[in-house]
Amino acid sequence: MLNGSLSYGLRSPLMGAIQTVHRGEAAVVVILLTHVARGANVNYFSDNHNFVDAFKKGFDFCRTTLNSDIYIEIFTLIHQKGIVFTPHWMPSHLLEDPKRKRCKSKDPKPTPDWVQRWHIIGNYHADLMATEACKAFDVEDHLAYPIISRAREIKLVQARISSIICHLPHRPKVKNPPKVPRSTPTTEQLLFSSSHTFSFSGTSFQKLAKSHTKLTCMECRASCSFASGQLKAFLKAECLPCLIEADDRVHGNITINDIVSHFTHKLILAGDTYVCVACGYRATDRINKLQHPCNPNTNTYYKKHNIELTEAGGAFFPDAAASFKRDKGDASP
Q1: What pTM value is reported for the model?
Q2: Distance, CA of 238 to CA of 193 (rounded, Å)
C-alpha cells in the first residue's frame, strides 16, 4: 500500500483437492514467503484469527493441526530464507461495515488500537483480489453442477428428517427407579447364618479373625482358614455331612478352603489330617494333591507307611499324623 492505493498484489488458485477457507488462508502465506527476499522482516496482517493463533503457538503445535503440511512448508521457508515473520490479526470488512454489524459472533473481539486507515484499505483490496481469483480459477459449470446438485439434495433430506423429528409427539419420559446398592453380608453375618456347625467355646468373632483360626465344620468336617480368600464362599456353601466310621475311614468328599477332594481317594482321618491309603497323599490345611484323581501306582514313603499299618490290621491312629510331620523332609507329596 502506498498513499492508500494498492501498489502490488498477487492472486493464485488453491492447489490440492482439499478446498477450505482455513487452508487458503495458510496457503497464501506460502506464496508470500516464496516471493520475499532473504532476510526480510515481514509484518503480516490477516483477518483469520485461527491462522494467527496457530502460528504464534509454534511449530510443535502447527504440525499437529489439520493443515500441518502447509504449516511445515511455512516454517521451512522462514528457516531457509532467514525471514522474520510476525503475523497480526485485525477484524475484516471494516471498510464496508465499520460497526461490524455483519459479525456473527455474539461477543466479537475488539478492534486493536494499532489498526489504521491503510490497514483497513489493504484488507479490503485483499478480499477483492480473492473474489477475482475465485472467478478466474472457478471450476467449470458442467463439473461443479453434479456436486452442487447432490449437496442440495442432501440438505433437503436432512431438512425433512429434522422436520419429522421436530413434529413428532412428545413421549413421556420414563424415570428409571433408583438403583439400590446391593448389600454385601459381612463375614460375621455369614458365619452365624451358615449351614455349617462350628464350636467357638465362648471366643469372640474379633479374636477368631485376628488369630487366623481354622474353622472346621463338626458335621461335614469341611474346613477353611480365616486368612483364606475363599472364606465367604465356604460359609455360603451347603453343609454336606460326610460319614466317618469307627476306624476313621471317611465316606464321601472333604472340603478345605472351598476346594473339594476327588472322589477316587480312599480317605482316613488321623487327628486333623486326611490321608489316602491308596496313593499316600494327605491334607491338613490345604487340599493339595487330593483334589486330583487318585493314582495307586504312586511310589511314596507315605503310601508304604500306610500299607504297613493296614497289613498289620491296625487303624490309622491320630498319632500317625505326628509321624507324617516328622517325615515331611523325606518325600513331601
Answers
A1: 0.42
A2: 11
**Can you state the angle between helices 301-311 and 319-326, rounded to 10 degrees?**
150
Query: For residue range 302-313, what is the model confidence (pLDDT) as tens digits?
Result: 666 665 655 454
Residue 158 forms part of a structural domain: no
| Cα(69)–Cα(142) distance, integer angstroms | 31
Mean pLDDT confidence for 25-54: 91
Rounded Cα distance, 177 and 62, in Å: 49
Q: How far apart, in whole angstroms, are the C-alpha atoms of residue 306 and residue 294?
A: 15
Q: Are 32 and 128 found together in one domain? A: yes
Predicted local distance difference test score (pLDDT) of residue 97: 55
Give how far the C-alpha of residue 21 lies from the chain's centroid of Cα atoms, to the nearest Å: 37
Cα–Cα dist 233/255, whole Å? 12
> Helix (H) and strand (E) counts for the chain?
11, 11
Structurally, the chain folds into a number of domains equal to: 2
| The three grid cell numbers given for residue 264, joined into one nine-digit string | 477316587
Q: Do the Cβ atoms of 100 and 80 come closer than 8 Å? A: no
Rounded Cα distance between 310 and 36, Å, is 107
**Neighbouring-strand partners of residue 249:** 268
Find out whether 160 and 167 touch, Cβ atoms under 8 Å. Answer: no
Cβ atoms of residues 51 and 90 within 8 Å: no
In the block, residue with C-alpha cell 517325615: 327
